[in-house]
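Dear Dr. L.,

I hope this message finds you well. Following up on our conversation about the binding site, I have prepared a predicted three-dimensional model of the protein together with protoporphyrin IX containing FE. For your records, I am including the exact sequence and ligand specification that went into the calculation, followed by the structure tokens. Please feel free to forward this to your student if that is useful.
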Amino acid sequence: METVNTGGGYSGAAMEQLQEASIGTLALLTTTAVLTVTLLARKMLAEKPQGDKRAPPHIPSTIPYLGHAVSFGLSPLEFLLAAYEKYGPVFSFTMVGKTFTYLVGSDAAALMFNSKNENLNAEEVYNKLTGPVFGKGVAYDVPHPVFLEQKKMLKTGLNIARFREHIPMIVDETEEYFKRWGNSGQKDLFQAMSELIILTASSCLHGPEIRSIMNEAVAQLYWELDGGFSAEAWLLPTWVPLPSFKKRDVAHKKVKQIFYNAIQKRRESNETHDDMLQTLLDSTYKSGRHLTDDEIAGMMIGLLLAGQHTSSTTSTWMAFFLAQNKEIQDNCFEEQQSLFGKELAPLDYDSLKECSYIERCLKETLRLRPPIMTMMRMCKTEQTVLGYTIPPGHQVCVSPTTNQKLKDMWEDAATFNPDRFLSKTGAVSDDKFIYIPFGAGRHRCIGESFAYVQIKTIMSTFLRLFEVELGDPGFPEINYATMIHTPLNPIIKYKKRQS
Ligand code: HEM
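The resulting structure of the complex is given below.
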């Protein structure tokens, strides 16, 4: 879950954030590095494939331990595209003592998406981050078959009947939120979208008990919990007494308590609602066992945070692409008028589905700015791909950002062109794993449909309210220092539409 969604270019972000880490953290890291250097040398020898098997080409580095951390961290996409040009679809390199093997392009990526979790393992790379945030007994803290059962329960709760109810709730939240913007001005759009996504997700996914107590203090607890998805958390043991770890752990306890209270209130009320909390209260494992309150609370946290950065960065980038391309923005608004009339009748699920132009804009945003930059797995057993043998111990990675920008796969790859998706795949070929913003295989996202409903509803409402242009800082640069690649200086200029 990105959040669970993890990934987010853990590694790239990790390196960038190293620059921002406190002196204490750096001292700790240096000590750790010195102590582990001998072990690493041994480990790297052990990581070579045995016999005459061919290891993936290894990008050489003269910097011990850190390896390519700095150049990757400064610009992961350029690093990976250049490596693909030079070494082909499978290559390895070292960063902070770990060996990363990237699978670029569809044929190579197929290894990850078709693999079994016991061979290419997700929890070993993700649980360090998600464990302290979601808590015990859920997601990557349980054996994979159990997580698959939990995903199935969550998926049952994300259904079309519910989406029909979600749409007016999201419209109301969005209209209410943007009242504070007035008639015109310049504002930080990423901050706005982050707040709006948390409010709408809480309304739709958590139910009335939780949404009714959602205030600044609760939002602050979510931010502190969310602060657990950091480079430090990925690099350092959980017991290190960092203030951000402490905040995360305190916030975890408090948020859990909020959910325990809501669960108890729901049970005592004897009312049944048609929402996610009810789905989880009613769900059972194959064994017949119901979820414990702790599991339900952990899954509710995961559900909220999985969509938080992913959907808030996507909506923000989408608005900036539209602000930059006035004609495309106008097409989106005209689509609203042609489907809902000049008076702009209320949005509903069936008509929203018809909004195919805005949907293509969202799809194209997810191609150029997929929030999860890299999906990672720990290689547990020797794997063969395109003639190369990957030994156990490598971190095997697939990057949507890279696959979705390959020049040999996408015409005019860098250009924002929603109409490329008028063709079946939008790409030059119909290779299966070229467009993968939601992943694929057994770890595939379960939140895609909800995210589409949520973002399309927010963006349609937003464009009905405002016309937008780039703010004074211009089109935002990508902030590689964050786990999910967020926009830097995301200031948008807006003007209320005349009704
Ligand atoms: C634009 C929005 C989103 C994007 C781009 C996105 C992307 C992804 C990706 C790439 C993965 C695969 C991770 C991997 O293979 O390592 C994933 C998994 C997942 N996502 Fe999403 N996600 C989004 C929104 C959501 C939402 C709204 C939810 C929940 C309501 C959600 C829940 C999950 C869950 C439960 C997994 C499964 C993780 C696993 O099985 O290992 N996501 N997502």
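In brief: The chain has one domain: 10-496.

With kind regards,
A. P.
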